[in-house]
Amino acid sequence: WSVTGKRDVLDLLFACLLPSCSIHDPDPDWASLTLGVFVCQACSLLHRSIPHISRVKSVQDTWETSEVELMAAVGNNAAKAKYEQKVPAFYYRPTHSDCKLLREQWIRAKYERNEFEFTEKQEPYSAGYREGFLWKRGRDNGQFLSRKFVLTEREGALKYFNKQDARDPKAVIKIETLNATFQPAKIGNPCGLQITYLKDNSTRNIFVYHSDAKEMVDWFNSIRAARFHYLQVAYPGASDEELVPKLTRNFMKEGFMEKTGPKHTEGFKKRWFTMDDRRLMYFKDPLDAYARGEVFIGSKENSYTVLAGLPPSTQGYHWNHGITIVTPDRKFLFACETEAEQRDWIAAFQRVINRPMRPQEYAVEAHFKHKP
Prior knowledge:
The protein is α+β, with helices and mostly antiparallel strands. 28% of the residues lie in helices and 27% in strands. The protein has a 7-stranded antiparallel β-sheet. The longest helix is centred in the middle third of the chain and has 22 residues, at 213-234. The chain is globular. Residues 21-124 form the Arf-GAP domain. Pfam families: ArfGap, PH. One of its GO terms (cellular component) is cytoplasm. Residues 127-228, 250-354 form the PH domain.
């Protein structure tokens, strides 16, 4: 006999108990008949890329008895217990909003490579040392050239070399201030990774990629592992749950806005803005190595506010949808091209302003106030 329709299938699969996709949807519409797990539509497309491992089927289709029995015998909870039994605390678990690369490699790591069943398969990103070549964008000419990178937890640094046989690195990046976030659209490569760090307390950007997807995700998780072990030493009493959110971070928001200068009489100029925690940075080009300027966004308890619109006295041509950020020292004026962009930027600023400042953030604020 056979079963047709999602409701009938899910009713029969009561043994699976609230199946949910590990990345995306709490009410998935697809299933992997070979793995015995429910997946969302987005993940079903990724499962199709590993047909030798996973064969997917819609719950809206006609189901054979044997297929229903397989799903009931396995289910998402049992599959998770098997395929995710040894996921390192630092390993990045993607969400539905992450790029395709992260989601696909998570699925392949679990079901194709069985990385979380055998710890020896985690060596590429858990050894505490990694070296290899990545394509790095040149700061001045914008060309991507092959560069040797070395990540060493013992030295607490990520280093890269401009020449293959160079003894001294071009840059030594401390793990303490290191961040990495995938930026495929901005970099123009599906494996594009943006690495940021602080140099003289200003943000520096490096843009890299590798042609091999697994290689690039292994680099990303190696950085997370190094950050994790650094933070375990820096905060010996902290739990894994407290440390993991600090390993890497995605930017709160990015996009073009227009800005004017401190006197508010200068013309508005179009700039690329990046909101990274409490640092609002602006660049002439999205792939610039250094920001043209940075603005610290504090909390409402410290007299920071965000307002829709611009002061009536504002001069010069600008986009129609203004934003004013009020700080203890001055007002910053921005303009957005659309109302939707204005709304999203205000929401991002408001989230930061509503969050009380941590003790270490006061030192960052003081540095911004004393910048020349």
